[in-house]
Write a structure and sequence with these properties.
The chain is α+β, with helices and mostly antiparallel strands. Helix content is about 45%, strand content about 10%. A hairpin with a 4-residue loop joins β2 and β3.
Length: about 140
């Protein structure tokens, strides 16, 4: 099946995909703020440049889009029909990069958490998860 857009239009659509301040990321930031947590954004000096960083708690939070990072939910498991080889390789590289960043953060003494886009739909569950992350480690 061919793409519904021309190559130029598809390129324009893909250029508009943001890497920061995405809607899922804003949902997490608002929830953290309501819980009284204060944070920094996109610390470039940490592996993977986490979306939200709580330096006092040494906690790094990544907010991942299910499709872009290859989650195992229905949205993340969907494979585009056009240019499959490219997309499978790209998502594979993203997953490898994510795993390396999480491992490097752990080695540096940071706690790291990944929040998936599909998990953010349930506000109560998100708040419960964030409260658990904000609690001091045992």
């Amino acid at each position: 099946m061919s793409d519904v857009f021309t190559p130029e239009k598809r390129s324009a659509v893909m250029r508009r995909v943001k890497g920061r301040d995405t809607s899922p990321e804003l949902v997490v930031r608002r929830a953290l703020w309501r819980l009284g947590a204060r944070f920094r954004l996109h610390r470039r000096d940490l592996p993977g440049s986490p979306d939200v960083v709580l330096p006092g708690r040494r906690l790094a939070i990544f907010v991942h889009g299910c499709f872009w990072h290859g989650h195992d939910c229905p949205r993340g498991a969907r494979v585009p029909k056009a240019n499959q080889d490219y997309w499978l390789a790209k998502i594979g590289r993203n997953r490898a990069r994510d795993a390396a960043a999480l491992a490097a953060l752990g080695e540096a003494g940071w706690r790291a958490a990944v929040l998936w886009e599909c998990e953010l739909k349930d506000a109560a569950a998100l708040e419960t998860r964030l409260r658990a992350l904000l609690a001091p480690p045992p």
